[in-house]
Amino acid sequence: MDPCKNTAQKYRPHSSPCRGRSGLAAYYGEQQQQQQQQQQQQQQQQQQQQQQQQQQQQQQQQQQQQQQQQQQQQQSNTACTQEQGIIVTMLHLTAGGLTAAAAAAAAAAAAAAAGVGG
Predict the structure, then answer these.
(1) pTM tops 0.85
(2) For residue 5, is it within any domain?
(3) FRET pair for 34, CA 20 to 30 Å: which of 14, 90, 98, 117?
């Protein structure tokens, strides 16, 4: 017996069971496919958002590292200027003919002032 020639064809002459699903079954099948596609798109969007968040976190970490490097450079720069200032004051005092004790006292005072300023 031919499966296409069944009693359903009498009531639905335009939709043959041999042509696949028709009517409500096909409609619901399409809806399910659309929902699955939407879910996949949402998952892809979520993954993209997570990647963006990770990139932002990496950028923040890089910025923090740059800030730390800048702070270290500033600290080393201030240390160099303090040392240079002490040496310059000692040279000036010794060139002026003062005793070594006065030069040492002035250097100690300059170091103390630099320590307070830093």
Answers:
(1) no
(2) no
(3) 14
